[in-house]
Amino acid sequence: MTEVSLRSLQKFYGKTAALKAISLDVNHGEFVSLLGPSGCGKSTTLKCIAGFEDITDGRICFDNKDISRKLPEDRDIGMVFQSYALFPHMTVTQNLAFGLEMRHVPKAEIAQRVARAMEMVQLTPYADRYPKKLSGGQQQRVALARALVIEPAILLLDEPLANLDAKLRDEMRGFIRDLQKRVGITTIYVTHDQNEAMTMSDRVVVMFDGEIAQAATPEDVYNRPASERVARFVGNANILDLPIARTDAQGTTVTLPGGATLQITRPAPSGQSRLRVMARPEQITLTSADLGQLPGRIEKRYFSGGHVEYSVATDCGPLFVTGPTTQHFAEGDSVGLCFDPARLWPLPDAESAQ
Amino acid sequence: MRIATPLLALFRTLVYVFLLAPIVVVVLASLNAGNFLTFPPQGLSLRWFWTFLNNDIFLNAIAYSATLAACATAVSLVLGTMASLYFTRHAGKHAEAVRIAVLLPLILPEILTAIALLFFFYEIGVGTEHKIALFTGHVLMTLPFIFLNVNTSLQGRDDSIELAARTLGASRYTAFRRVTLPLIAPGLSTGAVFAFIISFDTFGISFILKGTGSAPLPIQLFDYLRFNFTPEAAAVSTVSILMTLVLVVAADLLFGRRD
Ligand SMILES: Nc1ncnc2c1ncn2[C@@H]1O[C@H](COP(=O)(O)OP(=O)(O)OP(=O)(O)O)[C@@H](O)[C@H]1O
Ligand SMILES: [Mg+2]
């Protein structure tokens, strides 16, 4: 069942297009992240869905009903802002009760539901505090509870974790995800942090310049990016531009500098003599110099706890490789690089690297 | 560069003396037992306060000024808040123009504002009738104080607070009343105190636009001093200083240090 549907949604600020006719369907109970660099239109999309901005063209449907012209207060949404936007002159309890009061819920029921929401986000001991007297993480949870206590059909979050320190962010990430699963609410989550988008979402929508570049599961976005730009934005990507040796029923065979061939089990875009393929750092393995498909030399080595990161100079340019800590290469070592053809992803039409 | 602490203390003291001396002089002069407005006073007594309290002209003038100030402040509160909301949220690239327009009566010499208004109201055939010109002048004079104080309350405030209220089901008006208004209340009260005092005290505007009939206190005092030079004038001033002081302290107790 489709809960939120954006149909050719367009938004202009004066003459500049913030959103260029984007279309997106979000299913009931789904957790969708809007991911993209600063200024790509993530917040604008959310503001249009929330009803804070008039849309220039297109339609927004909730549950197949066009709500494009409805006021924010009539849209049945809960929203969490980056700044939390808690009411500073109200206690936690009063903040949570606000939405229910607006809905004319009887007093006794308000008390009950607020207490339940407070428990859900583990804030019961702070019921009578003012937001200023709470830590960032606690304010975040109040904002979340305030948005959820009204039991909206849709939850919108705009970079809710951006103001938290790294450790708390990881914690809250799991917390929000669990809560969302428990409540089962359709959620649209805006972030420019690809880790956040990957770990939390059922589906990631990558946006550039007011357009959707790809909307797919985190695995697909990571392993099968729709474009080089997506590949580079989501995680580290090694892009190898290789000549095509032949194309047949088995797929496409490309040649590495040094002569080794790789058979990629997917047809290349037709009519081209070269193919750009993507290999993620962990999809390349390092071996001794005489064994690899491509020779290289370790330029830089970074130990990062769980694994080791190398920058390797090759005839395909510098490649970024991660390896296990059990394997040791030093800077300056000559190595061989091995590719797993099944995991190489041919990128559609070569476009200039951004 | 460091300034020696004793020098700084001396300078600070001088500034305070400079600011407060006239007030002290007026208060002391009002306690004069003699028949003329002199300083230092010739003997101490409260007789001029008694005279003042039995003088309907001054009592009426005080009542008139207070009413005028209250009404001007009330209108300025509404207009100033609207101007401030527009300025901080919607004015966009016109923000600076809006700010200057509202602050103009504060920047221009008061006499210019007064004369401009006088010309304007004669031009449209109203003149100084019905205190319309006078009232308009007082609103213009007090508007900047509401505007500036509400701006301070609004700036640095997160715009999304009101939006949050909207998503929670509040209409535009309810969101303003339940969320924005409480947040700008300190600015409103400080602004109102300023506005009231400015209106109560202003001379130029009142002098030029007052028309016939009863006059605000400063004008009445001025008229009085032209022909009489008794300490009664000082007594009137002392009473208005006290009233102002009470107002400021009350506002501070009621609304100060809440944030
Ligand atoms: N009120 C506005 N007036 C004019 N232009 C705007 C307005 N709001 C946003 N824009 C423009 O629209 C584009 C998209 O902005 P948006 O806020 O949606 O970006 P974003 O993806 O949320 O970025 P960020 O990660 O920095 O929050 C930007 O180019 C921005 O300059
Ligand atoms: Mg944004």
UniProtKB/TrEMBL annotation, chain A:
Residues 4-234 form the ABC transporter domain. GO terms for molecular function: ABC-type transporter activity; ATP binding; ATP hydrolysis activity. GO terms for cellular component: ATP-binding cassette (ABC) transporter complex. Keywords: ATP-binding, Cell inner membrane, Cell membrane, Membrane, Nucleotide-binding, Translocase, Transport. Gene3D superfamilies: 2.40.50.100, P-loop containing nucleotide triphosphate hydrolases. The keyword Cell inner membrane applies. The keyword Transferase does not apply. Coiled coil: none annotated. InterPro entries: AAA+_ATPase, ABC_SmlMolc_Importer, ABC_transporter-like_ATP-bd, ABC_transporter-like_CS, Mo/tungstate-bd_C_term_dom, P-loop_NTPase, Transp-assoc_OB_typ2. PANTHER family: SPERMIDINE/PUTRESCINE IMPORT ATP-BINDING PROTEIN POTA, THIAMINE IMPORT ATP-BINDING PROTEIN THIQ. Belongs to the ABC transporter superfamily. This is ATP-binding cassette domain-containing protein.
